[in-house]
# Entry
Amino acid sequence: MFNSECLGVNDQNHLTMGGMDTVKLAEKYGTPLYLMDEDMIRNTCRIYKNSIDEFYNGNGLVLFASKAFSCKYIYKVVREEGLGADVVSGGELYTALSAGFPADKIYFHGNNKTYEEIEMAIDAGVGRLVVDNAYELDLIDEICTKKGKTADILFRIKPGIDAHTHDFVKTGQIDSKFGVALENGEAEEIIRLAMQKKTIQIVGVHCHIGSQIFDLAPFELAAEVMMNFIADMKDRYGLELKELNLGGGYGIMYTEQDDPVEYHEYIKAVSKVISQVAGKRGIEIPFVLMEPGRSIVGSAGITLYTVGAVKEIKGIKKYVFVDGGMADNPRYIMYESKYDALLANRVNDEKDDVVTIAGKCCESGDVLIKDARLPKAQAGDVLAVLATGAYNYSMASNYNRLAKPPVVMVSGGEDKLVVRRETYEDLIRNDL
Ligand code: LLP
# Structure
């Protein structure tokens, strides 16, 4: 009935998360409200971590791709579970460091890191810079020379793999803005450049082939291509690339149409490919990293809204309006992403209505779900949109000067506010 193991229904016909009544939480914190199940997040971290132990003898590290959900508290949770973190901006880095995240377990990504961001990362002692292009390589060299330091880097490589997902989140193929391509020699070229720089330690290579992927095959293929590249670099230059970072991208269940593979199955399949190529090419198995984001937090989150007006356009459609929308979840307007929703205060009532759930922004496309099957909704109902834990809070905006909702975590029957609701005062804080 639910697309996430953290959800249930209680004897008042209310939706529960981690056993807690979500309607009561909506009353306590107000709506819109992001709710997340911390215990589920921790369990998923453990599945990943155990898989590294089982399939790579512990010779690897899971990095939480914090673009999926970044706030101080999540860095504390994933750190306690033994994960590292992937950050993509000075802002994410600052948040992680403010939460006490160990800098050496941070991998800094991004296709256009600024001078200031690189300097900040080097001063903080981040574990690795994942270098996207030759301009960045020069900046790192310049900054390290000035500071008398060296930088440990990986290169972001485009392995040329089409991961059959939404075009906007496909990043492995040659015309992607990320990284350097293998097939036209760019990757080898940048490695040759880096080998001449005294400030640069080339530790490994990275790829990320896309997001919300359900097939094993593109991951296996990416691992094979990357391992062969590692072997080629050893053969041609005697270069030992000790780390292989295979990015994230594991799909989650948003609606019943989605059929994700168990995460340890991906890791098992990929580990087989890695050891096969290592054996065939006579190279060591590298230290393996992966960067799941969505799959760690996505299914552990829901958003609660209060229903306001219900507008029926006779013979055309019925709109159910909620007190949030594209400002707290821009994924429908950006990608036409599909979600499931239910009435949290009347979970098992008959779903005899088909409606479009729309937000309150001045934008016709401000829709959360088209053709949602719900009980007849009325003002005051609490609507839950499911699987909103990834790329919702992190992509939220203040469009129309809507204040961002708070984030509440539930764990062991307790609720904890981890990001407070923005106030009108917050909205004008930077206005002069
Ligand atoms: N590593 C790198 C280098 C990435 O670029 C990404 C995602 C990840 C890891 C994490 O991927 P995940 O496991 O979460 O699929 N805003 C889009 C998703 C963009 C993902 C960009 N990169 C969305 O809402 O679907």
Residues 217-237 form the longest helix (21 residues). The mean pLDDT is 96. The longest strand covers residues 301-313. The chain has two domains: 7-30+300-427, 38-294.
